[in-house]
Every structure is written in structure tokens, then in C-alpha cells.
Automatic annotation (TrEMBL):
Coiled coil: none annotated. It comes from the Bacteria. PANTHER family: PRESTALK A DIFFERENTIATION PROTEIN A, PTHR43162. It comes from Streptomyces plicatus. This is NAD(P)H-binding protein.
Length: 287
């Protein structure tokens, strides 16, 4: 093993993964559009600039792949990167996919299929991130500022997962010795229990003492709120439509993959809230 390239290296999962791998003595290269000047393992990387891809990949035999955000079709940007990764002989790619499929986002499914088709490459399909309840995500921002969750999901449940558990799974899969990898190429990742927004709000209220209310809205109103937060129109529409799927029970699922791969159970939502309680109670938005 020569090293792991972490795209989205300063994001929710990538930053934690980098710490885990460094702590295990694994060489890493942290890729981001604006790399830290004082970080020796940082490299400039931009999905929209293929000229940055070869330097980021050079000398790395494994990749943690976080696709471009705020788009329903990542393939035009990611395809040149995958071609270059194959040309350079990257042996393992761990793709951060999603168990929650955006309507009209065939490109995301195509990307996952593209990765699964390559021997040694795998797809992670985490459920909704618990970190969405924190700012700057629009859901978390509204909770922090107004003490409310606006949703069109009704009483539908999601197997919310902590991003730290996703990173822990990725670390295991990226450090497995060659020859010890099984043939499985797809992992559904969830927390230990599926919760609806009402149950999540109750947990935040009980753990922080700050009342959080749930406000039912229609899908169109949810989309307008996402657009107002700065999301591109098509992505805002697709993300709002996810609530309709949650309402039907489509995302009410729980897996044991985190425990199976890491040897410890995933964090509960209550544990997540306890770790981030100040985020919702400190007027400065401390995280």
C-alpha cells in the first residue's frame, strides 16, 4: 500500500477519515479546492479542472471518492477522474454514495454502478447524515436559529448515521491488505435505529433543554426553502422530493454493516446530540 487519496478531504467524512488514517500510520493525501498552505499532505483538487487530477492521484493506490455536491449528475465531472485512476493502477476506490436516492438523479446510480464494476472498488451507501441536523446544512441552520424542523416527510423514518461511523468504515475498507478483501462491493450504512423527525426533535429537546418543534410543509415549500439557502434549482427540487420518499417508509431501514466492519456499534442519535449539544444551545453556534 502506497497511500490513500481523500477527495473531499476537508468535509464531514473526509476530515475524520484523514485523522483515522494518520493515526494508523497510513500515508494520506488530502484533496480540496483550497488546500491548507501549512499542511504537507494537502493538494489542490477541483472536479471541474481535470488538470488537477493526475497530480492528486500520482503515487496513491487507494482513493476515498466523494463526488461533487449540489448536483444530480456527477458523472461528467467524475468520469475523467476514474479513467485517470484506472490508467495509474489505483487498486481500491471507496465511493461515498447514498442510500437515499434523489429523484431524477440517474447519474449518481450510474456512478455507483461504474465503481462496483471494477474489481476491488466498493460503494458505501449511508443513510441520512446526523450531521444534517447541524449548521451550515439548511436543516441544522433552521434548528439553531428558529428551533424548528420544517419537513414534508410526515412520520417517515430514516436510519440516520453519524459521519464519524462512515469514516470508520471507509478506514477499514481502505486499509485491508490485498488478498483479504471479499467480493462484496456495496455496503448499506445506517445508525442503530431509524427515527422520524418528531423523534429526532424530542431527543434534541430532552438532551439540550431547548424545545425543538416540527412544522409540516409541502414538498414545493421545502424546495423553495432549499433554493433560498443557495442550492441550485434542480438539486433543491430533487432534495425536497426526498421527503416524499421518506414519508412512504422507503428509507426506514437499518443495517449491521458498521458493527460488522469496525467491530463496534454505530453511534445512536442521542450520543450524537450529546456530543454536539452546544451547537443548539450556545448563541454563538459553538459546535
Amino acid at each position: 500500500m502506497t497511500g490513500v487519496l481523500i477527495t473531499g478531504g476537508t468535509g464531514k467524512t473526509g476530515s475524520v477519515l484523514a485523522e483515522l488514517l494518520r493515526g494508523s500510520g497510513v500515508p494520506v493525501r488530502v484533496a480540496s479546492r483550497v488546500p491548507q498552505a501549512d499542511a504537507p499532505d494537502a493538494v489542490r483538487f477541483d472536479w471541474s479542472d481535470p488538470a488537477t487530477h493526475p497530480a492528486a492521484l500520482h503515487g496513491m493506490d487507494r482513493v476515498y471518492l466523494v463526488p461533487p455536491v449540489d448536483t444530480t449528475d456527477p458523472m461528467p465531472l467524475v468520469e475523467p477522474f476514474l479513467v485517470e485512476a484506472e490508467r495509474l493502477g489505483v487498486r481500491r476506490v471507496v465511493l461515498l454514495g447514498s442510500a437515499i436516492v434523489l429523484p431524477g438523479a440517474a447519474g449518481a446510480l450510474e456512478l455507483a454502478a461504474r465503481v462496483r464494476a471494477r474489481p476491488g472498488w466498493v460503494v458505501l451507501r449511508p443513510s441520512g447524515f446526523m450531521q444534517n441536523f447541524l449548521a451550515p446544512h439548511p436543516l441544522g441552520e433552521r434548528i439553531r436559529r428558529r428551533g424548528e424542523i420544517r419537513t414534508a416527510a410526515g412520520s417517515g423514518r430514516v436510519g440516520w448515521i453519524d459521519a464519524r461511523d462512515i469514516a470508520a468504515v471507509a478506514a477499514v475498507l481502505l486499509t485491508e491488505p490485498d488478498g483479504h478483501q471479499d467480493d462484496r462491493r456495496d455496503y448499506l450504512l445506517t445508525g442503530p435505529k431509524a427515527l422520524n423527525y418528531q423523534e429526532a426533535a424530542q431527543t434534541i429537546t430532552l438532551r439540550t433543554g431547548r424545545p425543538i418543534r416540527v412544522v409540516p410543509v409541502e414538498v414545493a415549500e421545502q424546495a423553495d426553502a432549499y433554493r433560498a439557502s443557495g442550492m441550485p434549482d434542480a438539486f433543491a427540487t430533487a432534495l425536497a422530493a426526498v421527503d416524499a420518499g421518506i414519508r412512504t417508509g422507503r428509507d426506514d431501514q437499518v443495517s449491521t454493516a458498521v458493527l460488522d466492519l469496525t467491530g463496534r456499534p454505530p453511534r445512536t442519535f442521542a450520543e450524537f446530540v450529546q456530543d454536539h449539544a452546544l451547537h443548539w444551545t450556545d448563541p454563538r453556534g459553538t459546535r
